[in-house]
Amino acid sequence: MDIQHLVDRLEDLVDEGRHLFGTKYTMVDEERALEIIDQMRISIPEEIEKAARTVQQRDRVLAEANEEAARIVQQARQHSEDLIDDQEMVKQAKVRAEFVVEQAKIEAQKITQEADDYVLVQLSQLEQRFAMTLDEIRNGIQLMQYQEPVAVEVEPEMQPVVAPSNEGNGDPISFDRPAPAPMGSRI
User: Which is it for the CA torsion 122, 123, 127, 128, positive or negative?
Assistant: First the structure.
């Protein structure tokens, strides 16, 4: 699974969480958060494998460039051996062979540099994604670890009055505040 998709899912989970009034904290479903984090742990090796494949591709391109250079050098040698009889042609062949070898080296260096630049860009992007993901994970963990329950005070006037039961158990009824007197009674 794509690491960016998992980061988006984690962000959605935080967005869906219950915001604690009066604080910057949000309660999230711990099980879903841990499930997404587990999936991230699984997908990170996939991203590393992609980078390894890129490095292997670069090595293959380099090997092909070296083979091409060796083939060109071999062709130049063969060509120069065919022209040994004529001194002028031999000189031209040597110059041509050196030119071809130099061009092959330049081309191989160019291909190597392009492959290295490509790998560097890919690894830098991967590092940035991992850094962002790691920051989000750390923020989520920190948020979950340092959440403080919010105590809500209820004013005494707002406390509910419990009605007495009609079961007649004989225990006295006690209220936190006095109950209103029945209609028509004198106190």
Answer: negative
Residue 69 near residue 101 (C-beta atoms within 8 A): yes
Q: Hey, which bits of the chain come out as E strands?
A: 18-19, 26-27
Sites in the chain below the pLDDT cut of 50: 175
- Determine, yes or no, domain membership for 12: yes
Within a domain: 31:
yes
Q: Which long-range contacts (CB under 8 A, 24 or more apart) does 162-166 make?
A: none
| Domain span including residue 108 | 3-149
Query: What is the DSSP code string of 45-62?
Result: HHHHHHHHHHHHHHHHHH
pLDDT score for 52: 84
Domain count, the chain: 1
